[in-house]
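Per your request, structure below.
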C-alpha cells in the first residue's frame, strides 16, 4: 500500500520527537492501538471524514476516545485534526509503526491464503523460502483472500512469492493462447 507524503511527514516528525524524548516504545504501542481502533470502527472513520463537523467538535470527541493515550499521542491527534488531516490519522499511525520497526530491524511479512491455515503450515511455508530467516525479528500479518483459489502469496518487504492457484491457472491460460 502506498503511503501519502502527509502520513510520512507527520510520522517522521512524531518519530523525531519521541526519539528525543525517549517515548518511542510508549507511542509505538499507542499507535498500534490507534490503527486497530481506526480499522475496526467505521463510525469513527465516518465521523472524522464528515466535512460539516468542525475541528473543535472532532477534537472534543478525539480527546474522549483517546484519553488513555500519552500526551504526545494526544497532541499529535489534535494537531492532525486542527490541520484538517484527520482522514490520514490511520495512515500516519501505521507509517510511524513501520518506521519504528525499520529502525529495530523488524521485517514485515504478509502471508495471503485462500482459507485459514494452521501455524505448522505457516511455519513450513516460511521455512521453504530464502526470503525469511526464522531466527530474525519479523511481524507476520495473515490475510485471507478466497479469490486466489489455493496456494499462497508471501510478501517480505518489497519481494513477493506468488504460489497461488489463480496465478498458475492464469499462466496456463497464457501458454495456451500463445500456442
Amino acid at each position: 500500500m502506498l503511503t501519502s507524503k502527509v502520513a510520512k511527514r507527520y510520522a517522521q516528525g512524531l518519530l523525531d520527537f519521541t526519539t528525543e524524548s525517549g517515548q518511542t516504545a510508549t507511542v509505538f504501542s499507542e499507535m498500534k492501538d490507534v490503527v486497530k481502533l481506526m480499522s475496526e470502527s467505521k463510525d469513527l472513520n465516518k465521523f472524522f471524514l464528515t466535512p460539516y463537523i468542525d475541528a473543535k467538535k472532532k477534537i472534543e470527541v478525539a480527546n474522549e476516545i483517546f484519553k488513555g493515550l500519552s500526551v504526545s499521542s494526544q497532541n499529535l491527534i489534535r494537531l492532525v485534526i486542527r490541520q484538517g488531516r484527520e482522514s490520514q490519522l490511520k495512515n500516519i499511525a501505521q507509517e510511524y509503526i513501520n518506521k519504528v520497526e525499520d529502525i529495530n530491524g523488524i521485517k514485515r511479512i504478509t502471508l495471503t491464503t485462500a482459507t485459514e491455515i494452521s501455524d505448522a503450515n505457516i511455519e513450513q511455508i516460511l521455512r521453504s523460502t530464502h526470503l525469511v530467516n526464522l531466527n530474525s525479528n519479523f511481524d507476520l500479518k495473515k490475510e485471507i483472500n478466497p479469490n486466489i483459489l489455493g496456494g499462497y502469496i508471501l510478501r517480505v518487504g518489497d519481494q513477493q512469492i506468488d504460489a497461488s492457484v489463480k496465478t498458475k491457472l492464469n499462466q496456463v491460460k497464457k501458454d495456451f493462447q500463445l500456442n
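Residues 10 and 92 are 6 Å apart (CA to CA).

Regards,
D.
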